[in-house]
Amino acid sequence: MARILNPKGTIEKILSVSGKLFVEKGFEKTSTQDIVNVSGISKGTIFHHFRSKEDILAAVMRGHFDKAERRIRGWLAEMEGLSAREKIIALFDMAFDDDGANAFTLFAIELHSPHMILANMQDCVNRTAPIIAKLIRDGMDDGSIETDSPDECAQVFMLLYNVWCDPVALRCDAETLRRRMAFVQRAMKLWGADVVTDDFIAKYLRFAEKLYGKGTTNGNVG
Description:
By secondary structure, the chain is mainly alpha-helical. It has helices at residues 7-25, 32-39, 43-49, 53-77, 84-96, 99-111, 114-142, 150-164, 174-190, 198-212, 215-218; strands at residues 172-173, 220-221.
């Protein structure tokens, strides 16, 4: 007799299987029947929990964002003794070496989906930006950051970095990407939140080349 999953277990299996299929086959080429075949869960049960394939994708992305927020808070808990500016710089650096973040970036590249871009924009503003804004306010208190617009600095930075400087969201060649990152660096410094270092830009450009291929050095990215 087949094992009966509880509702939570059923949802977790649907999301796990769907996420893998979306990466392997692409979102558009993955059918609900593919999810049924791999998961062993009936189509009726899937549609009991999710209204559509797009609804499943949204849930997969929410799961990633939940994990990302927990990772960020975990990293910050280990940074006692650093100034707020140093914490932000260290936080940015850690993201490049995080397997979970890298896996999701690859997932985003495979999907190349408007749903993904919109969800990422919303997550930047609603989840990650408040964490960065809190650090900027801490920096205003400890003297490592001088700005009078912590929330706006955090929100604009996250949108520029995760959308404008994302070659999947807005296609560009390597030189354009470098100029965009340099502009973000100058803008943040002008606004009093000098947290985008030359090292950060160099790492991001190498990271982008690794993920998107050699097009980041001699052609279009994305």
